[in-house]
Batch of 2 targets.
Target 1
Amino acid sequence: MKKVLSLAIAAALVAPAAAMADATIFGKAHFIVENVDTTASTGATSVDAWGVDSIHSRIGVKGSEDLGNGLKALYHFEFKVNQDSGSGLGDRNQFIGLSGGFGTALLGTHDTPMKMSQGKFDQFGDLPNGDIANVMPGDDRVDNVIAYVSPAMGGFTFVGALVAGERPDLELDGLADHVSLAGLYSNGPIFASLAYNTYDLGTAVDADPTLLRGTFIWNGGMWQAGVMFNSLSLDLPGVDDPDSIGVSGNVKVGPGKIKLQYLMADSERAGISDVISGFTPNVAINNGVNFDLSTTPATARATDNEVTQISVGYEQALSKRTTWHAGYTMYEEDLTGKEVDALFAGLIHNF
Amino acid sequence: MKKVLSLAIAAALVAPAAAMADATIFGKAHFIVENVDTTASTGATSVDAWGVDSIHSRIGVKGSEDLGNGLKALYHFEFKVNQDSGSGLGDRNQFIGLSGGFGTALLGTHDTPMKMSQGKFDQFGDLPNGDIANVMPGDDRVDNVIAYVSPAMGGFTFVGALVAGERPDLELDGLADHVSLAGLYSNGPIFASLAYNTYDLGTAVDADPTLLRGTFIWNGGMWQAGVMFNSLSLDLPGVDDPDSIGVSGNVKVGPGKIKLQYLMADSERAGISDVISGFTPNVAINNGVNFDLSTTPATARATDNEVTQISVGYEQALSKRTTWHAGYTMYEEDLTGKEVDALFAGLIHNF
Amino acid sequence: MKKVLSLAIAAALVAPAAAMADATIFGKAHFIVENVDTTASTGATSVDAWGVDSIHSRIGVKGSEDLGNGLKALYHFEFKVNQDSGSGLGDRNQFIGLSGGFGTALLGTHDTPMKMSQGKFDQFGDLPNGDIANVMPGDDRVDNVIAYVSPAMGGFTFVGALVAGERPDLELDGLADHVSLAGLYSNGPIFASLAYNTYDLGTAVDADPTLLRGTFIWNGGMWQAGVMFNSLSLDLPGVDDPDSIGVSGNVKVGPGKIKLQYLMADSERAGISDVISGFTPNVAINNGVNFDLSTTPATARATDNEVTQISVGYEQALSKRTTWHAGYTMYEEDLTGKEVDALFAGLIHNF
């Protein structure tokens, strides 16, 4: 025991946990050069600027351990590299879990099943101009989540997440103030998914939104084509439910592929912040679902603000882990007259 | 030299330090689901809420190098995973050191010897409701520390730390404005320790607190029982010195163990913030010793606020590195009427 | 495809990127004990304080991948360990790049070529009192950089960086609002470099500064001697261009070496913040080039504030990766009367 103590003390001081193998470092480096031309509203002067930016570059540590009886423990800590801000790291998916014959169960921070249900639809994911999240709701990463992923059964997988609100001040005090469910199906060239979200907004606003997303992708080998729709239902008198729809695709050309994407919505981000005016800016419900909320939803805007986002691009793999790409995105709002034209070229390395 | 230069330049640009082996990644993933029922004070409405939370999850990098002649260099950078806040990482123990026949000497941020002296007393460590730090003073991690750990001699180990105040504005400008010393003894089933802290609070308040902690643990193999006391001395006229005492234990039952813990104090955290009123909130002395201070200590409260914290739980190892646990903690203050009831279940994975 | 989907879904959930080898962890642990005696200005009371501090301790992850045809992809994410502040990590060099026969090209955050051109001139680099950056301008790390490093040709290497301003509000909207160029030559005992910076300060101030730095180092094996000058040109009527000059050297003595450094400037940091008064504090141009700016440069100070920084020290390697050092730095401003005396001893471990 003497030896044990001295070791224990030394360990407490210099080594909180003995080196226990198999932590894996992973991440993604993605930087672009871009030119963005922005006109804030009808009649405003356009601002044209160049930039060099990290595009959700990330690093993480993860690992797993076989517990016997087909059971596995796993952990995953992923961080955003805040390259441009000087503030070190931000948070991405971070959780602990158990997996086995029953599937996988998780606790922590994770993308919602709805976000996961998009599969490979987004041809311009992560790009500040280009990502579907600019136009479509439901691409959320949430804290305080209990998630479950079923095993694949005949090509079918179910994913569900309960999200605790942790805002008792708004009477959001349950384990399932926000729920996200998704069914995914994959068979040969087909990928199809349907996802459904419910949101309790507590005492902030009595709108009880629900969100439905459908995605269908056909992968023909030399080409891919996909369609996605989102339908948001708001329990607000006199307010239309905003919808959004998008098509995307790519086709192999030479050593790379040409990418296309067209998204359209009744209003930006399918209208959450647009439809509900008088909102408290940046009130985050469920720690991560960024619903802008109002206590006076009656003042909802009568007119839709139709949004269009069109992107074209080219990308070419330099190896399994390294890709370069270039492209152009045009974003327009018909009511406000906002317009963004973005040209970009970048390099991606996964590790 | 030509080659050397080009290499040097390339290195400066792409590789500040050549890969030099043996950095070890370590950490701990700990998440719980909890239900917490809080009554802020006598007569207040209780708030009951569910949550999913990271419990001091952490990652770190550490390593050591043999310098010859029995000397070793070591480093340790450990960070808290701020999963719930979106702010990336916070700080835990971070230091550089030398170890050899003389023991180990460190510079940086570290748990105080008093914190280290608790051994395995705390059955509910880290838990927001359950950790002894809710009731007992002295569980501090401090910046600006010079620490020393002796080799074990006949079961006895000495640990000492000098902490620089780095607050010359408060006339805390020495290397030992805060001192923490501990002697630990381990022999067969016995673990015993005594720790002593002095604090200079500079011109903020002339109370010159000292803190004494004793811990005794008997580990009988199938069961463990421990007792701890803390005695704080304050040089404030008319103010009683707050004490705290606790007992804890566990007993093997089936594949796991049942845990019990009972803590009692004259006032919360042994009364620092309670005894000294008119304090400046969150004035951190010694960068980490969170003494709430006052320039008018004369207004100290006459009445004690007796605090009780009782926890029961069960934990079961699923492997050497993975453990699940569940439990309940009750916290009460008799003067304010504050009451907290917490139910929790969690999963821990060390790596 | 069924299997692929279930794997893809599982991967999306628990493993954003398959473990893809060869990420290298690197870093530096550097802590000192120091005593600093500061007199803020003529007649002020001196403040004398001890401290224990991390000196730009850092950790990072980097790697590279062979793309074939002599081409290589590389990434580098380096973070400052904010040990003393509790805020986790800050940013250092972070970039993605391609290297090949043409040299190396980078996107991200990086030291400027001018900073790189100092070679091993600075005998007291990183030290809060001692680093040449206290006196000399041009030691910058910048965001939004496109950098290029040529291959070494006959001992000669060229390094260039274009820095995007990303401040369209100040009409800094190009890719080269700040430019830094350096030529480095190394042959036998000789290291010589010349670097040149241009800064566009947009609408903030019409001074169009340029900075020229020359460095010459002779490494005689048992000793090293170096000289560096910086010349800043400001297009401001009635304002002298501030210059700075320094000499440094070291000589082997016993198992270690004695280090000397003498720096002198017309005004602190060669006078940027001194020459241009009425400035807006901490306006960072080019995200990292900390030019303090004024819209009323006409009030520039007539009198120089001559700065002297003298350091002596000793350092001894305990291994290839571990070094201890001790030293003294004296800093003086003749106009303001500011004076700093710093004694320090520290331990460095590279990994």
Target 2
Amino acid sequence: MSERAGRAPGKRGPAYPRAVDALISELAHLPGIGRRSAERLAFHLLRSSTDEAMGLARAIEDVKKSVRHCGVCWNLADSDVCDVCADDSRDRATVLVVEQPKDLIALEQTGMFRGVYHVLMGRLSPLDGVGPGELTLAPLFERVDDPAKNVAGVRVAEVILGLNPTVEGDGTALYLGEQLAGRVGVRVTRLARGLPTGSQLEYANKAVLADAIECRQRV
Amino acid sequence: MSERAGRAPGKRGPAYPRAVDALISELAHLPGIGRRSAERLAFHLLRSSTDEAMGLARAIEDVKKSVRHCGVCWNLADSDVCDVCADDSRDRATVLVVEQPKDLIALEQTGMFRGVYHVLMGRLSPLDGVGPGELTLAPLFERVDDPAKNVAGVRVAEVILGLNPTVEGDGTALYLGEQLAGRVGVRVTRLARGLPTGSQLEYANKAVLADAIECRQRV
């Protein structure tokens, strides 16, 4: 084994081909993907067929080219108006406000809601520097105030607050409730709080039980 | 809130734009990435700048276009022969056999080895269906037998077995040792076993201590 004098250990950088290094550092930029996982993913892509790897590359390009936000409700869309807003069987007078497009998807999957949505693109979080200006609050207030700004010019009759039942979600709902209270002709409601169906009372936490008692429903 | 009679809950599929669904399922094909993580990554790519997302897409394309295996040692390369094999300051008579390109990188980072490598692309693992035919054993034996098949036509004088110190790595080393034993003029060695520098005796496991005793070195 020939050691070469004068060559300090660790002096050489990694010797992957340039393209592999580039891919690893691109992958390591993704959230929750560290350097090690990025290497593992890069080696997977190296091993997999060209079709498979190119499928991923093309999917990323497609998304950046074709996906935008709905001009009315800020849901993800592949045209100017999203599928929900474009569907004229929906009740455009009822607007359910959610934080993220994925909340909208979760609600859509129940098939129980036939109104339309408004996606805030986040929740108020002063500690993270997210104030009212960072969310799509202004377009929501415009939709409520001016029927021309809502889908098909329908006047908004009810705003349902569908934020996450967390401290920040509740804070955002409180703020929205205050801002919307002054608007004439608009009912503001929120999604029900209580025991999750399928759960057991003995394992429910205090906040859930308190909600269940306070918001008890007539049978 | 208008519910529509006759619409069963859960009947609607997810309502992401087609391109977003496609990206999520491409990402979910990656190892260790489930559906939830794939959604999280897709939303990250949607939020990030076009340059950033396209950077990843282009890095994948680049890797599939430009990266291949070295014709001599099977290391990753961006031309017919890898950087290590192409470097004429290296000792081509000493071949260190490793399982994967990443093992080669780890060894290169020490800067202590000035020979060349041979990457097996795995280890023997009968339970996973990996036999001698799945590895680059034939090209290794050809390099040893015929100087013309080695870098710059140099005759191989020493083969160092650098497989992982695991059951399967050891099994592969045993097989290689047997296969190489009959070849005239080739010395077969393996990487040293013993206590890892920086560790503490009291925490070393029995196998490590047994190796340390058995392979004790003269000082």
